[in-house]
Amino acid sequence: MEFNFILPKNFKEQSISHLLAETWFIPRKQRHFLRMKRHILVNGEPVNDNYRVSASQQITLLFDHEDFPELNVPFGDAKQAEILYEDEHLVIANKPEQMKTHGNSKDELALQNHVAAALKQPVYVVHRLDQATSGLVLFAKNQFVLPLLGQLFEKNKIHRQYLALVKGHFPKEQFIINQPIGNDRHDKSRRIVAKGGQEAITHVEVLQRFPHSTLIRCLLDTGRTHQIRVHLTHLGHPIVGDVLYGGTRNNRLMLHAQELYFKHPFTDQHIKISVDSQTFSENLPDFSAQKRPF
């Protein structure tokens, strides 16, 4: 594999060593291969770790198969992959409700397999959506970019916006839920708000009130398992259709990952992708009569 990059105009001068380890988060093993094989080029010339690079220079990285063993992903059905964005390094697809992000066994086909079939190459899972949740999922197209995208998620530099329909009404139009989340000792499938849990922060904005429910927008600062579902249940407002957390039964879980936005890690381009869900809209109260605020 060969990757070529033109460093953006606002790039801060730094050593090759810092660029690979701290800016692009390339794993130690792959950095070792690049260094030993002299597979790091600047403007076409091999350089060492101490070489300092600056804006507008071209960086070329060469990887052999032994550097990044290829992932074996069985191809699914390309027709089931709704791809909304793609470039050399990443792809964003729209996951329907009740489709898994990835299979739990080699024989189980999921969104990852369908996207791989559409691209005719393996893709790598960066983050996941619950099976019952619809919306945007980001995949890496190579192992080079995978750890970098993972770090961007950890540092809250990839922003995720969700729509949810919840039971009841809130006293405020906007608020922040800052409650740690941990495992439920009595049910391995559930999470709970717990003092010793991991930090979890959810921003909530009310979009529309219905007689017995409220449509809200949620923005995540963290990405804990079931975070939105746990936080809203903790407040006494479970998501409609979320029977695991006490919500009323519905045709589907009323949670949809509507938007992803972030700065591209290599080009500094601002990527913003949004998608609506027909089944989510159809399950809102008085769907045919109401004008939706999204």
Would you mind describing this structure in some detail?
The protein has 294 residues and is of the alpha+beta class. The strands form four sheets. Strands 7, 8, 9, 10, 11, 12, 15, 16, 17 and 18 form a ten-stranded mixed sheet that branches. A four-stranded antiparallel sheet has the order 1-6-3-4, with no helix packed on it. The chain has a two-stranded antiparallel sheet with strand order 2-5. The mean pLDDT is 93. The protein has three domains: 2-62, Structural Genomics Hypothetical 15.5 Kd Protein In mrcA-pckA Intergenic Region, Chain A (Roll); 78-155, Pseudouridine synthase, CATH 3.30.2350; 158-261 and 270-282, Pseudouridine synthase, CATH 3.30.2350. The protein has six helices and 18 strands. A hairpin with a 2-residue loop joins strand 3 and strand 4. The chain starts with a strand and ends in a 12-residue tail after the last helix.
Question: In a few lines, what is going on in this structure?
Answer:
The protein has 294 residues and is of the alpha+beta class. The chain is 16% helix and 31% strand.
